[in-house]
């Protein structure tokens, strides 16, 4: 299945949304049902299973993986807030794609004609291909989620960035959209910090996967007859410096993967508390930085040809550069908060 994502990764990047073939492949695999309850036809996968799968998909196509992760977050928000009392239309297809954002940039208006939602939500990854959008709203003074059919939203084409281009993270707009009361509900995160860490991991996992994908490119180069230009070596593997760079890039990649899995295991343990937040966030940001550092070494090894538009390395580099700077992976704020926590302890 990942062969399909790899085959269409370039098309996904160029057209600014996942290729239809890639989306069909992940649907057939049940990946959009990872975070739907078993009682509703999903698998309700734990954090470790989810991030392993996202990393596997990200190794083939980071943008498609990112949108699968975004769907998992949106469904987790809905399910954790409503439990088994899911709206029938939402539960009807456990493998429907969803998008969303927790930023409460919308509002709820209740009147004699019913409940209406108005707002504008940026960076809705996968919105053009999603059936549902779980978006943050303020219902009076209550931070809530509005679960909206994407077909009822106006989509503004605002996503034009260097990397993760294929996520199609555009803006959704609702202007007085009439919804049933069951489609607006207070946010409930029963695991609180564990849930927030899980949400961050869904951003990290595609980045880790993309880094593994880049390493595949470099390992393929080492297995070929390509030689370091302007050197006496006949193959890359003959160069001690190249071998050292390869080893360091591999070490950083695997360290990022181990860090991701350790964080997922912590989430699955059920022991994560708010006091753990600074440490967990710091470790997540460290893993993202390891990915960026590994890509820089790989680009050094490949040289300027790695930036050719036909070379997947430059696309993976762009995806890692952008994806690793998601707010959940912000290095300077996590360092700041970790320092504050340590100084107060």
From TrEMBL:
<protein>
    <recommendedName>
        <fullName>Acyl-CoA dehydrogenase</fullName>
    </recommendedName>
</protein>
<dbReference type="InterPro" id="IPR046373">
    <property type="entry name" value="Acyl-CoA_Oxase/DH_mid-dom_sf"/>
</dbReference>
<dbReference type="InterPro" id="IPR036250">
    <property type="entry name" value="AcylCo_DH-like_C"/>
</dbReference>
<dbReference type="InterPro" id="IPR013107">
    <property type="entry name" value="Acyl-CoA_DH_C"/>
</dbReference>
<dbReference type="Pfam" id="PF02771">
    <property type="entry name" value="Acyl-CoA_dh_N"/>
</dbReference>
<feature type="domain" description="Acyl-CoA dehydrogenase C-terminal">
    <location>
        <begin position="203"/>
        <end position="330"/>
    </location>
</feature>
<dbReference type="InterPro" id="IPR013786">
    <property type="entry name" value="AcylCoA_DH/ox_N"/>
</dbReference>
<dbReference type="Pfam" id="PF08028">
    <property type="entry name" value="Acyl-CoA_dh_2"/>
</dbReference>
<keyword id="KW-0560">Oxidoreductase</keyword>
<feature type="domain" description="Acyl-CoA dehydrogenase/oxidase N-terminal">
    <location>
        <begin position="5"/>
        <end position="77"/>
    </location>
</feature>
<dbReference type="InterPro" id="IPR037069">
    <property type="entry name" value="AcylCoA_DH/ox_N_sf"/>
</dbReference>
<dbReference type="GO" id="GO:0016627">
    <property type="term" value="F:oxidoreductase activity, acting on the CH-CH group of donors"/>
</dbReference>
<dbReference type="InterPro" id="IPR009100">
    <property type="entry name" value="AcylCoA_DH/oxidase_NM_dom_sf"/>
</dbReference>
<dbReference type="GO" id="GO:0050660">
    <property type="term" value="F:flavin adenine dinucleotide binding"/>
</dbReference>
């Amino acid at each position: 299945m990942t062969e399909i994502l790899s085959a269409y990764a370039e098309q996904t990047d160029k057209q600014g949304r996942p290729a239809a073939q890639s989306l069909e492949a992940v649907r057939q695999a049940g990946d959009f049902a990872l975070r739907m309850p078993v009682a509703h036809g999903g698998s309700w996968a734990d954090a470790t299973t989810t991030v392993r799968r996202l990393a596997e998909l990200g190794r083939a196509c980071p943008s498609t993986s990112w949108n699968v992760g975004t769907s998992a977050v949106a469904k987790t928000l809905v399910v954790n807030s409503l439990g088994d009392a899911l709206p029938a239309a939402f539960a009807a297809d456990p493998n429907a794609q969803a998008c969303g954002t927790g930023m409460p940039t919308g509002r709820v208006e209740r009147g004699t004609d019913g409940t209406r939602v108005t707002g504008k939500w940026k960076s809705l990854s996968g919105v053009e291909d999603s059936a549902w959008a779980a978006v943050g709203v303020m219902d009076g003074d209550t931070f809530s989620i509005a679960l909206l059919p994407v077909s009822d939203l106006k989509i503004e084409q605002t996503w034009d960035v260097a990397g993760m281009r294929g996520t199609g993270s555009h803006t959704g707009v609702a202007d007085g959209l009439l919804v049933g009361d069951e489609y607006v509900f207070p946010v409930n995160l029963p695991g609180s910090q564990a849930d927030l860490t899980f949400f961050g991991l869904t951003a990290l996992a595609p980045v880790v996967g993309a880094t593994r994908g880049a390493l595949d490119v470099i390992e393929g180069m080492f297995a070929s007859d390509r030689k370091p230009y302007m050197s006496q070596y006949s193959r890359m593997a003959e160069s001690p410096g190249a071998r050292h760079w390869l080893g360091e890039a591999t070490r950083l990649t695997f360290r990022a993967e181990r860090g991701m899995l350790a964080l997922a295991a912590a989430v699955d343990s059920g022991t994560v508390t708010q006091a753990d937040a600074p440490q967990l966030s710091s470790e997540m940001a460290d893993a993202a930085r390891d990915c960026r550092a590994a890509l820089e070494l790989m680009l050094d090894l490949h040289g300027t040809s790695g930036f050719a538009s036909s070379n997947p390395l430059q696309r993976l580099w762009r995806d890692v550069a952008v994806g690793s700077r998601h707010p959940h992976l912000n290095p300077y704020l996590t360092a700041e908060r970790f320092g504050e926590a340590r100084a107060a302890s």
